Amino acid sequence: MEVTYFSFILVVILFIVVIESVRRGILETKYSLLWIIVCLFMGFFSISERFINKLGEFLGVFYPPSLLFLFGLLFIIVLVFDLTRRISKLNKALTNLTQEYAIMKKKFEEKDTD
Amino acid sequence: MKHTQLSDPSVLIIVPAYNEEEAISGTIMKLTQFKKQMPNLDICVINDGSKDNTAEIVRGFPEVILLDLPNNLGIGGAVQTGYKYADQAGYDIAVQFDADGQHNVDDLHTIIGPVAAGECDMCIGSRFVEKTEYSGSPFRRAGIFYFERLIHLLSGQKVTDPTSGFRAVNRDVIELFSINYPSDYPEPEVIIYLRRKKKRIEERTVLMHSRQGGESSITPFKSVYYMAKVTLSIVMQRLVGGA
What we know:
The complex is a heterodimer of chains A (114) and B (243).
Chain A: H1 3-24, H2 29-47, H3 49-59, H4 66-113
Helix pairs in contact in A: 1-2, 2-4
Chain B: E1 11-17, H1 24-35, E2 41-48, H2 54-59, E3 65-69, H3 75-89, E4 93-96, H4 108-116, E5 122-126, H5 138-155, E6 167-170, H6 171-179, H7 186-196, E7 201-205, H8 220-241
Parallel strand pairs in B: 1-2, 1-4, 2-3, 5-7
Antiparallel strand pairs in B: 4-6, 5-6
Helix pairs in contact in B: 3-6, 5-7, 5-8, 7-8
Keywords (chain A): Coiled coil, Membrane, Transmembrane, Transmembrane helix
Transmembrane segments (chain A): 6-22, 34-52, 58-81
Protein name (chain A): DUF2304 domain-containing protein
């Protein structure tokens, strides 16, 4: 089996898992968009031999299917960057909540002792 | 409004504490002693999710305000909690004071004074304006000197002791800090931030002791990482500000 078909099958499985996760409510719809875009692109790259050969020729790549690794890696970098951004946002929200919680608790205790 | 003098300002002492059970009661006793000279002063300890008995010890002092964080936020998040409290409760001046006994209560007048008089927006207690008995390791002093040069280069602000956590700020700065305060190693970064906001920063000579107990948040092992991280963060702070 050629690497292109193999990666296509993997992409299809990933696509199904993404859609199924959204359907079950495990993955939020807005976070699934990037994953769906990745699946469509990777699917297209793996199946279209003509396109990937043309692109390989254009970029001077000796073995065109290795472009799949390049794009896979690039997508992963984008995804991880997106994740760190989301973590920062969550972290900020968590810090804020923790601080407000401590202050509210203090005010609540003060009321109790009055 | 900016340069108003405060004759009897309300002051909040912010004491961030993480696993400080050995030193905290000594620090609180010195502060409550000081409160007798300055009745309009409140002491606020922020327990930053300590794993030891810090919170229980502080509860033993009913006159101390305890803000008990349910999880560990790190020094920046803990100190900011104090500033948020000061903002909401309407204090005129807030002072950061270390729980570990490094800072000297007798110097509180020294750094509150210039802020109360409207001479500056933030007053930092420095070990190096004039020669004091402080003697850190050569590496530590080299690190402090490095940050001094870097901050001067980036902001034009001259601060001899940029990592000092002993500082007093006025109402304007309390409001700024409650909205935005750097998280991990905030002391040097704050200087660039305030400078960008056109705030006046001054230094006064204070005495600092070596730690009374517990562990320093900066171990030698971490110090190289610390230098790199702080350098990056203050350069970023300068870049995003533009001015």
